[in-house]
Amino acid sequence: MPRPRAFDERQALERAREQFWATGYAGTRMDDIARATGLGKGSLYGAFGDKGRLFHRVFDDWCTAVVEVAEGRLTGGPDAEALARLSGYLHLMAANTASDTERRGCLLAKGTAELAQHDPTVAGRSAETMTALLTLLRMEISAAQRHGDIDSTADPERLAALLLTVVRGIEAVGKAGLAPETLRNIADTALAVLPRPKGRNASPPDADRPARTNVGPSRPHDPPGSA
Amino acid sequence: MPRPRAFDERQALERAREQFWATGYAGTRMDDIARATGLGKGSLYGAFGDKGRLFHRVFDDWCTAVVEVAEGRLTGGPDAEALARLSGYLHLMAANTASDTERRGCLLAKGTAELAQHDPTVAGRSAETMTALLTLLRMEISAAQRHGDIDSTADPERLAALLLTVVRGIEAVGKAGLAPETLRNIADTALAVLPRPKGRNASPPDADRPARTNVGPSRPHDPPGSA
DNA sequence: TACGTTATGGACGATCCATTCCACAATCGA
DNA sequence: TCGATTGTGGAATGGATCGTCCATAACGTA
After folding, report:
1. String of DSSP letters for B58-103
2. Which pLDDT belongs to residue A123?
3. Is the pLDDT of residue B162 over 50?
4. Which DSSP letter does residue A213 get?
5. Is the CB of B5 under 7 A from strand C?
6. Whose CB has fewer CB within 10 Å in chain A, the N or C terminal residue?
7. Nearest residue of A to residue B207, measured between CA atoms
8. What confidence tens digit (pLDDT) does each residue in A111-149 have?
9. Where is this region: Disordered (chains A, B) (predicted)?
10. How high is the mean pLDDT of chain B?
């Protein structure tokens, strides 16, 4: 009956995300988004509501993607490779931050920093995302403990929180200007200091212990990876 | 000869900082600052230039304070207490983030996230600050290594980068909504996993090893601590 | 083919905001 | 005391921005 949409909603959301990612919430004008998506104001407002709702949708999608990337890297594998999966994930995050030459940072961090204080929706979604990542990390740590790669007496919850903090911290110090090589070293060091099972000695942090599943930086424009 | 200023510049900058801290750069109107400082527009612009210059000044002061807090906590003490100083610093940072009930976050992180990409001054200053913190941490780690509290074969540069990442990461995950208790645990865990000298076994992360110089949260409105 | 319905996109209105301007006040030296 | 100089604060300005509105276009159905 009605006239169908002439644009691809998915693609429009991607363009909008690019824009919000590049210039933040307050720094993005609806005209920018109209130009970026090629849509007129009428279509924009008709399809997505106002600026706030559009951002919420973009932010929500981003958070989902962040967790999906972690799930793809971390879940579903033998315990014997759990430590390698953790290593791969940390290095992926470091590589993504390092490859962000435009220093856009991560929309999750950016949006949270800008809006969490005054926007309950953003605050809630970012908290949810952190909790989800925490759970994924904890499960992998437990798996590595079962296989004897991590000290089984350590609290997996605490180690997970530490690794999450390192991941988010890499994002922060990367945006603050630390060198790409430093970011990679941080991921290495974080993995190296994880407590080993009793009986073996803890190796110094510059030992390249874990099987480094050499992870190249994902495409620069692939947002979820840069979480 | 001329008429002297009727306001205290230092105090005006503090009020301006409160405002930028609370609502970010783009989210702060010059009217807000005028109201917060009690100054008229004429005085404001006459004394500090435009909004950008005012923010740069506030941001610069904040960065200086952040480094000063770290210096106060970390430098100048016997090697025997270096690890305790590191512990105190990490716990101070965690406590400050935890006590930020308004979730304002840290102006350094907020300003960097919002502006570093497009403002070279902010980008440069935040990079400088990170480097300065890195140096302070590295020196303390070296001191702890000399005293035998940290494995002397570990690379102090890498451990320093890891600790800096943890500090900044605590800020990030705290703003993202993780519980205050979790933040404290992260600081504990980060200290617990630091490599011990060979001969002793690494203790599991839930061991409360380092002398926890019980640091209460600083006053909520004391900005530098929350770095 | 004609009509009802929704999409489209650019013009428009109202608001907001950074900055300037100006009339006046206060100080100090002469 | 007087004047030159700077501080003060609020009104005015110019530009930008969000969201709405509307005339028109495109589709499916009868």
Report:
1. HHHHHHHHHHHHHHHHHSSS-GGGHHHHHHHHHHHHHHHHHH-TT-
2. 96
3. yes
4. -
5. no
6. N
7. A154
8. 999 999 999 999 999 999 999 999 999 999 999 999 999
9. 194-227
10. 89
